[in-house]
Amino acid sequence: MKKLVIFDLDGTLAQSKSALDAEMAALLNQLLSHIKVSVISGGNWPQFQKQVLSHLASDERLKNLSLLPTCGTQFYKYEKGWDRLYAEDFTAEQKEKIVRSLKTAIEQSCLKAEKVWGEVIEDRGSQITFSALGQQAPLDEKVKWDPDFTKRKTMKVILDRLVPEFSVRLGGSTSIDVTKPGIDKAYGIKKLRDVIDITIAEMIFVGDALFPGGNDYPAEQAGVVSIRVRDPHETKRVIEAIIACLG
């Protein structure tokens, strides 16, 4: 019997940068009544609060929820409130090199967008994130920009050469996440194993980027039983199946 279900956020629980819809929130509340749940995403903590927490029931079930922003480089656990257990932040020098390399990769891959909405390069403390159309881009623009990840795979090849000492992963609809080496969703899963004392064999991971280079792929490499979904609609059906099995 599995004891923990881990979800990616954007593209899995919700559309990119969007809040959980009412059906997803209800399903997660129901799932939290049966089993421990974790969410690992490239998003930062404020994004988790806006997209996830503000739509879940504020009751004792939150003790079954662990949140790992910025690809697992931060860990939040609920007791009487939300406590951050760790954060693997970059130094100022590391941030400078990553930002400079991202700008170079954008130029070399000819992927500078004519119109953007908000920041293209965001410092999330423990992660630097490139969002091709900006952090606040409309969803309809984002989903059609790089649906097969081809554009970002080109950038990743350049970034792997420019910053080989860091981890570069594709995430969301238009984003690339850069973290410290070895700190990705596999790292977050191992932290979950240690902090909440659940073995990897007792976990399930659900995500939409479970392919080589995708920011969910390290979860599968860590040995977690993984389920690839295309969108939140498929995730809802997976949650329903898990609840039925636990029922």
Key descriptive features of the protein:
Hypothetical Protein, Haloacid Dehalogenase-like Hydrolase, Chain: A, domain 2, single chain, alpha/beta, 4-stranded antiparallel sheet, 247 residues, Rossmann fold
How does this model look, in words?
With about 250 residues, this protein is of the alpha/beta class. It folds into two domains: about 5-90 and about 185-245, HAD superfamily/HAD-like (Rossmann fold); about 90-180, Hypothetical Protein, Haloacid Dehalogenase-like Hydrolase, Chain: A, domain 2 (2-Layer Sandwich), CATH 3.30.1240.20. The chain has nine helices and eleven strands. It has a seven-stranded mixed beta sheet with strand order 5-4-3-2-1-10-11, with helices on both faces. Helix 1 (about 20-30) packs parallel to helix 9. The longest helix has 17 residues, at about 90-110. The chain is globular and about 55 Å long. The chain starts with a strand and ends with a helix. The model has no long low-confidence stretch (mean pLDDT about 95).
